[in-house]
């Protein structure tokens, strides 16, 4: 038996028993299908939990974070458009960089008699290990981009090993 045979709304109408046809549909089956659709529609906007934080209401990946590393520093850039810099918090604790913030918005149109409120929080955590000089960390916020520069310690810079690559013939 094929799984599609078990799903009544995917079969042609000639194969569908009368209990599943339009007007005389079983009310409990109809309720069940409508509730399933409701939950599917509600949770469609939520993405998978992100690797660096919990699931968010912004498709699981908000804010977008870009990490760059060179011999001297690690630079983390987060896109947080529309958020006031005072609503963003940057923490470095035991080698873990935490970016967190919230956005609040309220729109009121008295002519049309409606008010719209929006509220969202985010938190991203990035494990950096003990290679960052915590006393020299700097953060800037410009045009919706939060940039955090994390200079590496002398020990971390000295431990960098270049590995030669053999070319296969």
UniProtKB/TrEMBL annotation:
Keyword Cytoplasm belongs to the record: no
PROSITE patterns: SHSP (PS01031)
Record's keyword terms, sorted: Stress response
CDD domains the record matches: ACD_sHsps-like (cd06464)
One example of a Gene Ontology biological process annotation: response to heat
Protein family according to the UniProt entry: Belongs to the small heat shock protein (HSP20) family.
Protein name, per record: HSP20 family protein
The species this protein was found in: Sinorhizobium americanum
